[in-house]
Amino acid sequence: MSDFLNLNLTESIKGLKNKDFSSKELTSFFIEKIEKSNLNCFITKTFEIALQMAEESDKKILTGKDIGILEGIPLGMKDLFCTNGVRTTAGSKILENFVPFYESTVSKNLWDAGAVMLGKTNMDEFAMGSANTTSYFGNVINPINQKGNNDNFVPGGSSGGSAAAVSGDLCVASLGTDTGGSIRQPASFTGTVGLKPSYGRVSRWGIVAFASSLDQAGPITKTVEDAAIFLDIISGHDEKDSTSSVNPKENYYENLNPDIKGMKIGIPKEFRSDKLPASTQKSWDECADLLKTNGAEIVDISLPHTMSALPAYYIIAPAEASSNLARYDGVRYGLRIKGNDLIDMYEKTRSEGFGDEVKRRILIGTYVLSSGYYDAYYIKAQKIRSLIKSDYVEAFKKVDAILTPSTPSTAFEIANEPSDPVQNYLNDIFTVPVNLAGLPGISIPYANDENNLPIGLQLITNSFEEQKLLNVAKNIEETINYSETPEKWWLK
After folding, report:
1. Known catalytic residue at 78
2. Angle at which helices 278-293 and 466-480 pack, to 10 degrees?
3. Does 188 sit behind a cis peptide bond, omega within 30 degrees of 0 on the bond before it?
4. In a designed cystine with 318, which of 10, 29, 243, 365 is the match (CB 3.0 to 4.6 A)?
5. For residue 361, what pLDDT band results from cuts at 50, 70 and 90?
6. How would you classify residue 181: left for phi > 0, otherwise alpha for psi between -120 and 50, otherwise beta?
């Protein structure tokens, strides 16, 4: 096989196992495409390492010994995961030349499974953004464009580089992180599958922290099956992470079952809005009907504190970011700008090292944690978070899963990105509650809007019910058979 475009993870594993092609051939193909691409998906390209890993995988496959589940599979990895000996920037100037001497648990799990690292994918700086326009290394471009329109569209954020790389056939699958929607939103914008596991399902050790009570790693893939395979490898208890759950994981791929007969699917009334695009509303309604046809019962539910989720999130997340990002001071590692004294060095380093959006969130976070405002803002937001969690606890007494849109709109042009940051924050309105409640969620492509841009729908289940989540998603995927194969304009 000489052309690996549109090849998914499951097909790649099968092809390598059957020796239809080698890992070196597959890896070399993607290296060539990445070099030709103008999507700006990768910050650091690790092609020499990738070819070495591919050759080692080919030897294992040839001998039939010590073959991992992902043996020889070329992947993209969001530049938030620390990789031993490989630059890790978090999309920021302040970490432009940072090279870790240790490996994140998740990336180690992938390499142990035989995966090949093509490089570190572009992202919003410190994962703070919904369009992948805040990266120090430039905007990522969505490979899916409007018909007859030459303008560039955002891929969503903050895992936009990972999503665009999968959608643009620059890797088989990729790894992202999700703090308030940063896997599901870019998946929705790019026509890919994005899975955010339950909080604690996947280790956070070795991931550059944004908001520690919200961050979670997960895959961006082409199919639900691929996401299940990926989750099998990256999930599980990690003693290095104090928030890692001891809840036993399932064999998600082997247990994948699209039969949903008798299941109850909730439709939250609070997610409905007159401002929701007609095409998104239509897809949402059609999918509910589809699930009903396939044997599920559709149940109207209420999540009364949903509308308070976004303001609560934008208090809690910046507060945690303010604390986590205090370590970037120019003293121990990262950027250092000389100053007249220690305080001057601190100020110059942080002023020049952080971008505007990161500075904005640090200032917000510091403010809500300050004396006199802690109780009024931070404590109140945490109380709202508890109420949101309680809403879902009550809902899951009545239903097995919840169906919502992934985003309030499809991808928009980079040139038309709202100048008001609050307008950008609204992109996360359907995804943020899931993070606050620590639940698993998945975005799957359902249809295209009138401009041929992907519409993603979100499924949510109770904590640690990823198997149920994947099963329902698989049912939808099999029924609609969504396919997005745009002209590969970015490879010319």
Report:
1. yes
2. 100
3. no
4. 365
5. very high
6. left
Instruction: Please tell me the distance from the alpha carbon of residue 188 to that of residue 458, in angstroms, as a whole number.
Output: 9
**Which CATH number characterizes residue 195's domain?**
3.90.1300.10
| Domains contained in the chain, number | 1
- Selected catalytic residue, list 12, 92, 182, 244: 182
| Identified catalytic residue from 78, 120, 196, 474 | 78
CB 255 within 8 A of CB 222: no
Judge whether 182 counts as a catalytic residue.
yes
Closest CA to 114 of 219, 205, 27: 27
Encode pLDDT of 126-180 as tens digits.
999 999 999 999 999 999 986 656 679 999 999 999 999 999 999 999 999 999 9
Q: Is 302 a catalytic residue?
A: no
β-bridge pairing 173-178 and 116-121: unpaired
- The tens digit of pLDDT for each residue in 13-39 reads 999 999 999 999 999 999 999 999 999
- Indicate whether 271 belongs to any domain: no
How many Å apart are CA 152 and CA 140, to the nearest integer? 9
**CA-based nearest residue to 94, from 345, 350, 287:** 350
Tens of pLDDT along 178-208?
999 999 999 999 999 999 999 999 999 999 9
Q: 120 lies in which domain range?
A: 9-253+480-491
**Best CA proximity match to 165, nearest among 107, 221, 97:** 221
Which one is catalytic: 37, 135, 158, 308? 158
C-alpha closest to that of 6 among 169, 144, 230: 169
- The answer to the question of residue 75 being in a domain is yes
Task: Go through 357-367 and write b for each residue having 16 or more CB atoms within 10 A of its CB, e for each that does not.
Answer: bbbebbebbbb
